[in-house]
Design brief:
Elements (H helix, E strand, L loop, with lengths): L12 E4 L7 H5 L5 E7 H5 L2 H5 L8 E7 L6 H13 L4 E6 L1 H12 L7 H6 L11 E5 L11 E6 L4 E6 L7 E4 L9 H20 L5 H22 L6 H18 L3 H13 L3 H31 L3 H11 L14 H10 L1 H4 L7 H13 L4
Parallel strand pairs: 1-8, 2-3, 2-4, 4-5, 5-8
Antiparallel strand pairs: 6-7
Helix pairs in contact: 4-5, 7-8, 7-9, 7-11, 8-9, 10-11, 10-13, 11-12
C-alpha cells in the first residue's frame, strides 16, 4: 500500500476553534474586497449571518445568497453562476451544511464554464479550473464537503444524483467553528453524523486507500464513534470533535473515494428524497456482508485496536436516535436504470470487491427487505 495518494490536495488553511467564523471577512480580505456569501435560512434566523458580516474590513462589500433548502440542483447552481457572472466577486464563501457548500463550490467552480451544469454532470466533459477562491465554514458535521474537491448535485428532471469534481475545487480556507452547530436539529445531527461515519468506513476500506488516507479515516471513525451520540443528546462539547472528524473523513474520501454504499445511496436518494446519511446507514448491513470476506482483516483490526464494530455501532445509533428505514414498503420502478447508475459511480468502482449488475440487483433487494443477502 502506498504511503501517499498520487496527488495530495489539502485546503490552503484550516482554522479550528470556537468563534472562527466571525473572522471570515477579515480572512477573506486576502482574496479581495468584494465577496459573495452563500448560506441557508437558519443562518439568518439565528442572527449568525449578521454577526459574520458585522465588521468587515474597511472598503469590503459582501453580498449574500440564500439557498432555499434541500439538496443542490443543477438548476440552482446555474442560477448562482448567473449571479456571479452578473456582478463578479473576488471570492465566494459558503456557511452552511453540505448542500450550501456543494452549491457554492459548483457555482464558483463553473462560473466561467461555457456549458450548463447539467452538461458537466452527465457528459464526462473536461471541467475548467475554478477561477474564484472558495471559503467554507460547515454548520453540520457530516458531509466533509469542506475538505473535498467534489460537489454532489441532483437533477430532478432526470431523477439523477451525481458529483462533479476538479482539483481546483478544494477550498482555500476552512473554518471549523463548533458554535455553528448550536441549534442544529437532532435529526440533522443524526443523518450528518451517520454520513461522516460511513464515509470514514468506506474510505478506510476503499481499493484506492493509502496509508495516509487510512490514518485519517481511522481517526475519524474512532472520534465519531465517541462523539455522535453525545452531540445528538445535546452535549455541545462534542461539536468540535464531530466537526474535526467529519473534516478528516472528507480529506480521506477526496483522495481514496468511497464504495458501493455510496454507489447505491446516490440513486436511492434521488428517488426517495431521504436524508443521505440515513440512506447510507440502511445500505451498510447488506454492503458490509457483500464485502466482508474482502475487508475482514480491516474490521478485525478496528475491533482489536479500538473495540469498534462498525455494523454494531450503526445499529446502536439507529435505535438510540430512533431512525426508521425510509425504504419500508417501497420499490424501485426503474431497476435497470438504477443498476446502470450504481455501476457507473466512481464510488462503486472504488469498492474493495468488484460489483457486477447481478450484485447490484441483489444488494438492492437486500436493502429493501432489510436482510444481508
Amino acid at each position: 500500500m502506498s504511503l501517499l495518494p498520487p496527488t495530495l490536495l489539502l485546503p490552503q488553511q484550516t482554522v479550528s476553534k470556537a468563534g472562527a467564523v466571525l473572522g471570515l471577512t477579515q480572512a477573506a480580505a486576502a482574496f479581495g474586497m468584494k465577496g459573495l456569501l452563500v448560506h441557508g435560512r437558519s443562518l439568518r434566523r439565528s442572527g449568525m449571518l449578521a454577526a459574520i458580516l458585522e465588521e468587515p474590513p474597511f472598503g469590503m462589500s459582501v453580498r449574500t445568497w440564500c439557498h432555499g433548502g434541500d439538496e443542490p440542483t443543477v438548476d440552482a447552481v446555474d442560477a448562482l453562476r448567473a449571479e456571479l457572472r452578473a456582478d463578479r466577486p473576488d471570492w465566494v464563501a459558503a456557511v452552511g451544511g453540505g448542500s450550501v457548500i456543494d452549491l457554492a463550490k459548483a457555482a464558483a467552480g463553473l462560473v466561467d464554464a461555457p456549458e450548463s451544469t447539467r452538461f458537466y454532470q452527465t457528459n464526462n466533459a473536461a471541467i475548467p479550473p475554478a477561477a474564484l477562491p472558495l471559503i467554507v465554514a460547515p454548520s453540520t458535521a457530516g458531509t466533509g464537503s469542506e475538505a473535498t474537491v467534489v460537489a454532489v448535485l441532483t437533477d430532478p428532471e432526470r431523477t439523477f444524483k451525481q458529483s462533479i469534481r476538479h482539483p481546483s475545487y478544494m477550498p482555500k480556507l476552512v473554518l471549523l467553528d463548533p458554535t455553528l452547530l448550536k441549534g442544529c436539529p437532532p435529526a440533522t445531527i443524526a443523518a450528518a453524523g451517520l454520513d461522516a461515519f460511513i464515509q470514514a468506513y468506506e474510505s478506510y476500506t476503499s481499493r484506492h486507500a493509502t496509508a495516509f488516507t487510512r490514518a485519517l479515516s481511522e481517526l475519524a471513525l474512532v472520534r465519531i464513534a465517541h462523539a455522535l451520540l453525545p452531540l445528538y443528546q445535546g452535549n455541545s462539547d462534542a461539536a468540535s470533535d464531530m466537526l474535526e472528524a467529519s473534516y478528516l473523513a472528507g480529506l480521506a474520501l477526496s483522495h481514496a473515494r468511497l464504495g458501493v454504499i455510496h454507489g447505491l445511496a446516490h440513486p436511492l436518494g434521488a428517488r426517495f428524497h431521504a436524508a443521505h446519511g440515513l440512506v447510507c446507514a440502511c445500505c451498510l448491513p447488506a454492503c458490509l456482508a457483500f464485502n466482508r470476506a474482502t475487508v475482514q482483516q480491516d474490521l478485525k483490526d478496528l475491533n482489536a485496536r479500538h473495540g469498534l464494530d462498525v455494523e454494531a455501532q450503526v445499529e446502536t445509533w439507529l435505535g438510540a436516535m430512533k431512525l426508521e428505514n425510509p425504504f419500508a414498503g417501497q420499490a424501485v420502478a426503474d431497476r435497470e436504470a438504477f443498476i446502470r447508475e450504481t455501476l457507473a459511480s466512481g464510488s462503486t468502482a472504488a469498492n474493495p470487491r468488484p460489483v457486477t449488475a447481478a450484485d447490484a440487483s441483489a444488494l438492492l433487494d437486500a436493502i429493501f427487505t432489510g436482510s444481508e443477502k
